Amino acid sequence: MSDLKIDPSDILQVIVGGLAIGCVYALVALGFTIISNALHLINFAQGDMYMLGAVFGLTFFTQVRMPYFVSLVTAALVTALVGVCIERTIFRPLRNSPPLNMVIATIGISITIRAVALLIWGSQAMSFPAVFGSVPVKIGSIRIMPDYLWILGIAVAAMVALQFFFKKTLTGKAMNATAQNRNAASMMGINIFRSDSLAAAISAGLGGIGGVLVGPVFFVETTMGASAALKGFAAAVLGGFGSVPGAIVGGVVLGLAENLSATFISSTYRDAVAFVILIGVLIFRPNGILGKKVLRA
Amino acid sequence: MKKAVRFISKRSALLWVLLLIAAPFVVRNPYYLQLLNSALILIIVAVGLNLLTGFTGQISLGHAAFVGIGAYISAYLSVTMGFSFWLALPLSGLITGLLGYLLGRSVLKLKGAYLAIASIGVGEITMLVLVNWTKFTHGAEGFKGIPSPRFFGLAINSGLRYYWLLVPIVITIYWLINTLVDSELGRALRSVRDEETAAEFMGVDVTKMKVLAFTISAVLAGIAGSLLAHMYGYLSPFSFNFTESVSYLMMVLAGGLGFTWGPVLGVLLLTSAKELFRSFNQYQLVIYGLMLIGVIVFMPKGISGFLAGLSTRVIHRSHDDGR
Amino acid sequence: MADNVLETKALTKRFGGLTALSKFDIKVERGSIHAIIGPNGSGKTTFFNVITGLYVSDKGRVIFCGKDVTGTVPHKMARLGMGRTFQTIFLFKEMTVLENVLIGLQCKSDYNLFQNMVTTRKRISYEKTLHERAEELLSFVGLYDQRENLARNLPYGKQRLLEIARAMGLSPSIILLDEPAAGMNPQETIELVECVRAIRDRYDTTVLIIEHNMKLVMQLADVITCLDHGTKIACGLPKVVANDPKVVEAYLGLAREKRPEARSAV
């Protein structure tokens, strides 16, 4: 349904919403990018990390009755742990297999995680109780749900922390080095296996954070990983696959595009926006917005 | 040697044909006969997918879309337009193949995981179309009343009769595709799989090969879809989903990518596994995912690869004293 | 006027800000063994990639057997008679040694779908002819015994020879060898020299060879062209080029680059 009466504060609202959801996509996209740079694989199960974050967050918040922020951190850590387990048990032995095998393996992982989650949490959509109250915050003439502000705040904080980690800490720089040249990094004394596990942990954790953030705004269901994976991947490709700032840019642009088209064009095909962008970029501009040059071969 | 296991040897072909002929006399239970029929149809899909993924190295996770398209086209042609099954079947194959050709030309420029993702997207979009294009497909309520094929007035509406319809089709397809694989065209396809860049420099039009394999696999999927439609008499758009596409890939994988008998072995394995775990309905998906991981980690060459490995070892041992 | 199998005019190729090839002119005479030398990164492999059509040149022309083939795609260049090997081995690993060579031999085929789905007498005799020619090429490089073996099972030196046999399957007018001696031991290198000479003598194929092994180059080459940073800095008879101060400077000028003679041990 398209709104013909366009109010400037409405547009701002849509934009803020788009930015917020875009930040969440960015987190998932970052997960794809980091694990791809480190392990040279595209992790189909990344979307399910997002889902795990959401369901763990929900469980910690409602069943264990932890405060929201604590639930968020714990859920992210648990998800990160899951990521590490996967890396150790499946990615590591398949390191030297043809890439086709890796693709299939991650699909198998995705299916398994989703199936297990289905057994534990069921197939019903679950709602996250309102965390920040339902009173919108007034900034100037616009009203924004506090959830969106929190999403923006925490997501941005996570991204800043990530940049700091990669640029300023020794471990982060070591991870960068490993991603660029494994052999050289190994010869410099960097523990590349630890680097790999860390990359898996971070990317899973980021996805998990995204899931918990989104929980209070939308429903939580065990199938939410599929669309998250598609959108996160589309965002990463849009921004330029392999580029960390690209993942962020891509996520934000995708979130905005999605929200704007859902409001002004049609909300039924909201999910198709990501897919159209993905196919469009892959066919017409595979390097994305900020991407590194990818050789044809 | 690898060669003997990879391509059809007259002996093994004869063996399978004999098994096929004997099967319905051994399998009397109509339920199992129906299972066998679905397995035969799946073999057709698997042969096409094996050609595409096993021999040409291109991954598709959206092949359920082609099966669905073939099924619905056949349903439409026979019900809404009154065509005979015998016309609807080849037409479904051809139209699905044409769609595959058009799609392939743009999508096959992508490589590896990107192609996989694009194919998933195609699968999802196709299912969306099947569900929403109600004028043509009757949407979510499903397409009912698809007639059984008629052979000179005899309605092929029992499991046994359908079996005898399927057997010659499957044998013919198997024969044609394997002759293809054994030919220079097959070599060209395999060179694309093994080393795309080098193949290009050796005179192989790589894109054309990929599109060719893709189109053939789409034709076969379309034919399979048509056979499905007329067997069940009813179609639901939701059955042509991602999980279904994954199961096709899993069958080819478990059987052995790029091996002649891979599709047959894989389909048999998966169908049996599904039956065995039928009682654990809840856990089916978990087992499924774990199987996928298990196969790729422990037996990436599938059963055929495993068997081939055994036989090579045996042969090398016997040839140790000078060849 | 010499008959040039291959000729380029002002060939230029840029990658972003880097100019890999700059106004490169070369004339390769039919029946000659023409070597291309130069320090790493001087554009030698880029040159091969441009003339075979993998990269499209930004400027300049490529003339092959008298025809302007600038911008023709690799698989068509192969059919026109330009064969090549690669710096890294790109054999069809899961195919047998014989099948690897058959691919090249098939290049003129039109790959008709229907003809390939049925076994006809014509096809059987066609396959027989292909097999015979493949076996002949394999005997030529000394790999006939290995013909049923998978390509990936061959030792390194033999894989390199297989690459050559595979390219020869195209019945090429010119064969481009990209560092064929890399990683070979002295014995294998000697066999390679004989092989290259035989390619020229027995099969009438012109040879264009990139090599770092100067001993090999001096033994084989009729003409040497030297590249540095994408530009031709010398071209002529081996003895002349080897002593050209510009060539010596190019090799020694890079502090960490080993001198060409020492590299053959790699």
SSE map:
The complex is a heterotrimer of chains A (297), B (323) and C (266).
Chain A lengths: L7 H32 L6 H17 L5 H24 L7 H23 L4 E2 L9 E3 L2 E3 L1 H23 L1 H11 L1 H6 L4 H23 L4 E2 L3 H16 L4 H21 L5 H15 L13
Antiparallel strand pairs in A: 1-4, 2-3
Helix pairs in contact in A: 1-5, 1-8, 1-9, 1-10, 2-3, 2-4, 2-8, 2-9, 3-8, 5-6, 5-8, 6-8, 9-10, 9-11, 10-11
Chain B lengths: L1 H5 L3 H17 L3 H26 L7 H18 L4 H23 L4 H21 L1 H4 L12 E2 L2 E2 L3 H24 L1 H11 L1 H6 L4 H27 L9 H14 L6 H15 L7 H15 L3 H17 L5
Antiparallel strand pairs in B: 1-2
Helix pairs in contact in B: 2-8, 3-8, 3-11, 3-12, 3-13, 4-5, 4-6, 4-11, 5-11, 8-9, 9-11, 12-13, 12-15
Chain C lengths: L3 E12 L2 E12 L3 E5 L6 H8 L7 E6 L2 E2 L5 H7 L1 E3 L12 H9 L7 H5 L3 H21 L14 H13 L5 E5 L7 H18 L2 E5 L3 H7 L2 E6 L2 E6 L1 H6 L1 H9 L13
Parallel strand pairs in C: 3-8, 3-9, 6-7, 7-8
Antiparallel strand pairs in C: 1-2, 1-4, 4-5, 9-10
Helix pairs in contact in C: 3-5, 3-6, 5-6
The helical percent of chain A reads over 70%
**Mean pLDDT over the residues of chain A:** 85
What is the CATH topology descriptor of chain A?
Answer: ABC transporter involved in vitamin B12 uptake, BtuC
How many strands appear in the DSSP assignment of chain A?
Answer: 4
Class by SSE composition of chain A? mainly alpha
CATH class of chain A: Mainly Alpha
Q: What is the name of the CATH architecture of chain A?
A: Orthogonal Bundle
Determine the number of helices of chain C (DSSP H or I, runs of at least 4 residues): 10
Radius of gyration of chain A: 19 Å
Q: What's the mean pLDDT score of chain C?
A: 88
Number of strands of chain C: 10
Helix coverage percent of chain C = 25-40%
Fraction in beta strands of chain C: 15-25%
**Uncertain segments of chain C of ≥5 residues (pLDDT<50)?**
262-266
Q: Any idea what the radius of gyration of chain C is?
A: 19 Å
Number of helices of chain A: 11
| Oligomeric organization of the protein chains | heterotrimer
Question: Which chains have the largest interface?
Answer: B-C, 33 and 43 residues
- End-to-end Cα distance of chain A, whole Å, is 44 Å
